[in-house]
């Protein structure tokens, strides 16, 4: 149920510890299919109780062995409810995990002061180094929403700010040919290959710490249809002239209600972000299309005049509900309309 494997391999957790509120973790082990990237980038995993037995038809190894092989620290027997309540009260905090028993509390406190997520470019450490083509789609036994796809192929350039593989699988399932490019890939190179659309992916850290990526987004806006997801949405917000800010403890988990203001429908969504776009800072013409119903924050934007759409949350789920998968179809339609109008 908590789908810890996708969370462990989501590059957006780079530089952060993940604390699971579900008390029992590890019972289905780890498998070959549920990887969201080639690596675990998170700082460490904090849980209440590690399952003493592992049982699932897809299981390839235990969670403990998986983390140990990747040199990722995991800690269990922790009062995760108490830490959750503290985080809700005080907001996100800096933590230190150490195996060195000789360290005093003062030394650990000092260590915690040497780290801050604000102002750090964490994207460089997780993005691919060279462009590559992506062809895998969602395996047929897991696919859904497959009706009504018209077999058109659109070429999408996907900026890898820490991209989750399921974004690529869903785009491929919707019939896209995909070229994945590094976060520093120049806009001019993207425009040169004349794709039908550009995807700006999810990614870790502070969106104000990566001005080069905002510049890239700016150079592409208005020239091609674009779709921004999470970090991609925040960078789009900045490129459009808006501001982003750090939230108290952000949105995490697979149960966030979001209202699509165009259809009136509520989607239950997967979310993982610490920053958000301030809608009041956006210029005229930019529409807030989705609102997080827990706190009223901006969960989606569109600028129809420039074929721009973006979501603060995760339509690719993985893990999480599939309510928002249709966003990929909307991106296909944006590319289709733009193609027809040229
Ligand atoms: N999942 C993401 O893309 C995270 C977005 C952003 N870096 C944040 O933490 O707010």
TrEMBL record:
Keyword DNA repair in annotation: no
SMART domains: CPSase_sm_chain
BP terms from Gene Ontology: 'de novo' pyrimidine nucleobase biosynthetic process; glutamine metabolic process; L-arginine biosynthetic process
PANTHER family: CARBAMOYL-PHOSPHATE SYNTHASE ARGININE-SPECIFIC SMALL CHAIN, CARBAMOYLTRANSFERASE FAMILY MEMBER
Species in which this protein is naturally found: Castanea mollissima
Molecular function in Gene Ontology: ATP binding; carbamoyl-phosphate synthase (glutamine-hydrolyzing) activity
Coiled coil: none
Keyword Glycoprotein appears in the UniProt entry: no
Reaction(s) catalysed by this chain's protein: L-glutamine + H2O = L-glutamate + NH4(+)
Protein name (database record): carbamoyl-phosphate synthase (glutamine-hydrolyzing)
Taxonomic lineage from the root: Eukaryota, Viridiplantae, Streptophyta, Embryophyta, Tracheophyta
InterPro entries assigned: CarbamoylP_synth_ssu, CarbamoylP_synth_ssu_N, CarbP_synth_ssu_N_sf, Class_I_gatase-like, CPSase_GATase1, GATASE
Signal peptide (residue range): none
